[in-house]
Write a structure and sequence with these properties.
24 helices; Rossmann fold; about 10% strand; alpha/beta; 4-stranded mixed beta sheet
Length: about 475
């Protein structure tokens, strides 16, 4: 059986030793923080905006059944085919069926984290279809045959030189470190793909229940081309993307841009409500919307942690997390990294296999403080730890806590243990950090607190 925790520890050690890589990420995120704070200051009242967003998402998630029904009904009224996918496998089968029925050969795809979640590209390519990512960052990592590094910035771990070398190798372009020239190289390669694609696949940032419309926000215009040019359009989105009203976008679009990329508003904001209507000059002949559950309803059933479904995938918690900034995105080995990934991945992929992510945190609370929809992230990490220990405690954990309970409930025994700790403290200093150290798992990266020469009780007794 694959050990995710062993791979995580190995990769973490490797990345934290790559000082140039860490410097690159921290420099990029430092610049992001400056721009984010500038744009937050433009809000009349940022804390009030966060509260309003949190309350809106609370309403959406706590009435999800009704909002989803309204959303689907209004989409279908305009000729959209709505599909309900309870699992990742079901979603893949639905999309493969649509592509095959369309007799498609090539597929153009804009950014969709849900597609990464269900490994859609692998399934389509295995079935013999060409799939091309149209988002520049996603296109770069696709050429490198690796997963996105970050929810918002898929290729933030790469330098211009590395991208130039990649394009020279894969696209035959001349070496350059000019961002404009690199963008034009990718544009020339992708332009023909839009024209020849039979199917366009998109994700969604929000889904509006009131009007039955998909909201997509982007900076490059690639999603618009992905939706407008192919004959068949497919949108894959998680059921938690629902917003109750169209007017909610007046808050969520600038909030997403500010928290996600330090922008006042993302460059392109589009709404899609169905296939091409009579009299319209462009748009797909067929429009399919796939609503993905994939264990989200299990998280919805948890009253303690269901607010994790409020997430708008802005990536703000990743940007401030001291763990993410040092171990990087690929170390998590899952679609959603950073604090939000550490909270929801155990729900989406299994608590026991992924519980280690909830321990990869300093619990500093920076993620909770920055979250634009006020998800209680650092407390959810603690709750995941508790739930994993309750569900399947290790023998070591059982024995440790039983012994601790015996000692803590017997004052005289506790006093003896304190005295023994003082006696063994010099010995511990000799073996600290070595395999002989009984606290090796802790002391290889941390110091044990020094046992004081005199306890408070002893001091109080002498004073009295």
């Amino acid at each position: 059986m694959k050990s995710f925790v062993r791979e995580f520890i190995t990769q973490s050690r490797h990345v934290t030793q790559e000082l140039r890589h860490r410097q690159l990420i921290q420099t990029a995120l430092g610049k992001y923080e400056v721009k984010r704070d500038e744009k937050k200051a433009a809000f009349q009242n940022w804390p009030a905006a966060r509260q309003a967003a949190a309350e809106t998402k609370w309403e959406a998630i706590n009435h999800l059944d009704q909002h989803l029904t309204d959303f689907a009904r209004r989409l279908e009224a305009r000729g959209t085919v709505v599909h309900w996918a309870s699992t990742a496998e079901t979603a893949r089968d639905i999309i493969l069926g649509i592509v095959r029925d369309s007799k498609a050969r090539s597929i153009i795809k804009s950014k969709a984290m849900t597609a990464e979640e269900i490994h859609l590209n692998d399934a389509l390519e295995h079935a013999g279809f060409e799939v091309v990512e149209s988002d520049l960052g996603e296109y770069i990592v696709q050429l490198r045959k690796e997963a996105p590094y970050h929810i918002v910035f898929p290729a933030m771990h790469l330098t211009r030189g590395e991208i130039s070398e990649l394009f020279a190798r894969e696209l035959g372009s001349a070496p350059t470190e000019s961002p404009e020239e690199l963008t034009m190289i990718a544009r020339r390669a992708l332009r023909q793909k839009y024209i020849t694609a039979d199917v366009g696949i998109t994700g969604a940032n929000f889904a509006i229940a009131e009007t039955g419309m998909i909201s997509i926000t982007e900076n490059e215009g690639n999603a618009r081309l992905t939706a407008a040019l192919p004959k068949v359009m497919i949108t894959l989105l998680g059921i938690e993307k629902i917003l109750p009203r169209l007017e909610d976008l007046a808050l969520f679009l600038p909030m997403l841009a500010t928290a996600g990329a330090g922008q006042a508003l993302t460059c392109y904001n589009s709404l899609y409500g169905g296939p091409r209507q009579p009299g319209e000059s462009d748009g797909p002949e067929q429009y399919h919307v796939v609503l993905l559950d994939n264990r989200r309803t299990q998280l919805l059933a948890d009253p303690e942690q269901r607010d994790a479904l409020h997430c708008i995938r802005c990536g703000a918690c990743l940007n401030v997390c001291p763990i993410y900034r040092n171990i990087g995105g690929h170390t998590y080995a899952t679609t959603y990294s950073g604090p939000i990934g550490s909270v929801i991945t155990p729900h989406l992929r299994g608590l026991q296999d992924w519980k280690h992510l909830s321990y990869a945190s300093s619990l500093c609370g920076a993620c909770t403080e920055t979250c634009p929809v006020k998800i209680d992230l650092h407390h959810h990490l603690l709750q995941n730890r508790r739930n994993s220990a309750r569900q399947k405690p290790s023998r070591t954990e059982k024995l440790t806590f039983k012994l601790a309970a015996v000692v803590m409930n017997r004052p005289r025994l506790y006093a003896i243990v304190k005295k023994m700790a003082r006696l063994f403290q010099p010995l511990h200093k000799l073996v600290k950090g070595s395999r002989l150290d009984p606290a090796y798992a802790w002391t290889q990266t941390r110091d044990l607190p020094t046992v004081p020469d005199q306890s408070f009780k002893d001091w109080w007794r002498t004073r009295a």
